[in-house]
Structures are given as C-alpha cells and as structure tokens.
Amino acid sequence: MELHGRTRFGARLRRLRKSKGLTQAQLAHPGMSAGYLSRLESGTRAPTETAVAYLAKRLAVSTEELMHDDVPSLSHTLAILAAASHEPSGAADRAAFLQLALERDCEADALARCHALWLLAVLHEQAGRFDHQVRALRRTVSVADNCGEIVMRVRARARLAGCLRTTATASDLDEAVHLAAAALSIADTYEADPATRAEALMATLSVNAEAGFLDPPRKVDEERIDRLADLATALPPLQRAQALWTAAAALLYQGYDKQALRVLELALNTIGSGDDLLIWARLRLAGARIHLAAYPPRTDTAAELLRQAEPAVALLAVPKHLIEHAALRARLLFLCGQAEEAGELLAQLDGSADCMDPRDVALFRLLGHQLKVLSGDDVPAAVSDLVASIDGSRMSALGRTAWSELSVAMASRSSAAARPS
User: Fold this and answer.
1) Is residue 240 part of a domain?
2) What whole-number distance in Å separates Cα of residue 334 and Cα of residue 88?
3) Helix 237-253 and helix 257-268: axis angle, to 10°?
C-alpha cells in the first residue's frame, strides 16, 4: 500500500475509532498493541489482512468500508458541494451527503464544521425543511461561538432570527428579537465588514417589524433603515438587492408606503435574471408581496411582478417558492374581488403546509377565512372564525391588515358587480 493509501486508511481508522468512543488502548488486543494502532493511524505502517479483519469486526463495519470509504473528508465534501449550493434541485440529497460527512469526519476543525453547518442550513432551506434548517443554524451558532469566527457568529444569529420570526409563536419571536440584537451588537463591536453588518441590520429590522416594535420610538428603526441604505451602496449587486428589499419592507411596515415602493424599485432594478435567477425571482415575489400589502394595494403592479416571476419559479422548481407564488396569486385574486377564483387556487394548495414556513401557513389559513366572509355565506360564523384565526396566530401585523384587505376585496367585488355587463 502506497503512502497516500496508508494515510487515508489511517484517517478512516481514527475516525471510526473515535465515532465508537474508543481509545487506542481500548481497541488494542494481545496481538495488536496501541503503538501499532498509532502507526496505522499515522500512515507509517500498512495494515495486514489479519489486522483489517480484526479492526472491521471490532468497529462493526465491513472490511470494504474500512478499506474504501466512499465519503470524502469534510473539507473535500464542502469543495464538492459549494459550487452547486445555489442550485435548488437535489438539495435534500446534497444535505444528506453533507450530514454524513459531518458525522464521519471527527477530525475536521471547528471552522470547517461551522461552514459545513451553514451550508447544511442553506440546503435544508432549499429543500423546504424548516425544522432541519433551524436545527442546523442553532448548531452553527454554537460552533461559531466556540471557534470565535466573528462573521459566522453574526450571520448564523441573523439567519436563525429570520427563521424564528416566521413561526408565529411568542417564544420564538422573543428569541428572534434577542438573536437579531446580539448579531447587530457583535457586528458593531468588532466592526464587521459592510455585508455582515447589513445582514445583522436586515435581521433586526425584519424581526422588530414582525414583533410590532413601535416602542421604543419609530426613530430607532428609521435610523437603522438609513444605516442599511448607506451600507447597501458598498455591497455587491446581489447583497445590495437583498438589503434594499428589506429596507423597503421595513419602510412599508412603518407606514411610509411611497418611500417603501421607491426603495423596492431600486432593489428590483439592481440585478437581472442572468445574475442569479433564484434571487431575481425571490425579489419579484417579495415585490408582489409588498405591493399587495401597500394601502391601497397596487394590484396591477403585483400582477406584473408575479407574471415576470412565474417562468423562473417554474424552472427552479423550489417547492417553497412555487407555493409562495400560487398563494400570492390567490391573495391578488381575493383583493381584486374574485373570491371564486381565489378559492379554487387556495383549494389546490391544500395540504402544502409542510413546504411553507409557519407564518405563511397562518396567512394561508387567514385567506381562507377572509374568502368565507367575502362569499356572504353565514357571515357571523365566518367573521368569528376570522377573528379566532387572527388571535390564534399571535402575529401582531396580521390583525392590522386582515380587515383592510377584506374591505378592499369587498369594494372591488361591489365595483365589478356594478359594471354593466
């Protein structure tokens, strides 16, 4: 066996031994000393057939697995996956492959594990596995703190806060507020680069908007929006677009509709579909969401953005975004007073909750109750269900928009009914 083969065998032997919780002395036996095992693991000695048979039996693996491991090292796995991490198709399979490498490569340093866990969270997000994504991000926060990697300490907290803010539970939202504040504090304390500070600011603005933080005074979030807009000018196009759309959403929530729509237009024009098709499509979905949330809703512009996004969403075939696109179309139809068409589209989405984050599940259910009120059948019961849905969601922003949306939809329906046929 050549030196390269001996080194790889030694690494596999050490990894398997540690995964079983055994020391070299515990694995040794009268015909195989701990010193001999040490030389095998360091690659200075080649294993005999007798040694391979004994070690495979003690470690509960086949001799084939011991001699020829198909799973590369964690660093090699990261190199393989990094180039394809932005491709949504096959994300679940790539996540399983990376998880296996994480479990098997006990020798990987903390920084490599940190980046692997971050990539694992990205892959779970692409596969629509919300719970797995949250678990991977929690592990990333822990490992990043242990290795002192400032950028990852900030990014992991910011991304985890963004996930937890969508769960519509008070405890998760409270944790998201603290995580975002910690991310921003770390970024400011260590004077992180503009992209890292922007990510912390985006998380803080989004979480505070979800939590309904109008106290302390509105000026606090205005200052953060200004900081984010200033930082965006120093960012590459993709990150600039994401920063601007976050600022637009925060401005809209604060009640500055005109400013929000101007900033959103900047975000939409920052990148083209050839730069990053997924981000380009997500920007249009986010833009449609913002235009529908404006008062009064800008349904024509939202319809055009959804039309632009449709072929890209279909091509990428990410379940979460396919469902988001369909749900936004249903909300558009509802706001235009087309209750029957909206109801039909909503019925097609029934059973898709597993691919939605919890916040969108709450919005999905809310739309169902709004449609029942708009239909005019048993209005008191439908209104009662709508109120219960708002209260049960524990989402501060939901109640503010539910009734205004319903009034817009009823006015649209009445206007359509009044037109001469």
Assistant:
1) no
2) 30
3) 160
DSSP string, 322-381: HHHHHHHHHHHHHHTT-HHHHHHHHHHTTT-GGGS-HHHHHHHHHHHHHHHHHHTSSHHH
The count of domains in the chain is 2
**Rounded to an integer, what distance in angstroms lies between the CA atom of residue 76 and that of residue 82?**
10
> What is the spatial distance between Cα 61 and Cα 57, in angstroms, rounded to a whole number?
7
Domain that holds residue 412: 318-421
For the beta carbon of residue 372, count every other beta carbon within 10 angstroms. Answer: 19
pLDDT at 294 over 70: yes
Residue 250 in any domain: the answer is no
In a domain, 394, yes or no: yes
Is there a contact between 228 and 261 (Cβ–Cβ < 8 Å)?
no
Maximum mean pLDDT: which of 3-12, 131-140, 266-275, 310-319? 131-140
The arithmetic mean of pLDDT across residues 160-165, rounded, is 90
For the chain, the average pLDDT equals: 82
Q: Tell me, yes or no, whether 324 lies in a domain.
A: yes
What lies within 8 Å, CB to CB, of 333 at 6+ separation is 339, 341, 342, 345
Residue 280 has pLDDT above 80, yes or no: yes
Q: What are the beta bridge partners of residue 29?
A: 32
pLDDT score of 369 more than 60: yes
What are residue 32's DSSP bridge partners? 29
User: Of 278, 284, 348, whose CA–CA distance to 126 is shortest?
Assistant: 278
In three-state secondary structure terms, 89 is: coil
Can you give the CATH number for the domain in which 40 is found? Answer: 1.10.260.40
Say which DSSP state 421 is in: -
- Single residue among 16, 34, 67 that ends a domain in this structure: 67
Which one-letter DSSP state was computed for residue 294? S
Last residue of one domain, picked from the residues 67, 96, 112? 67
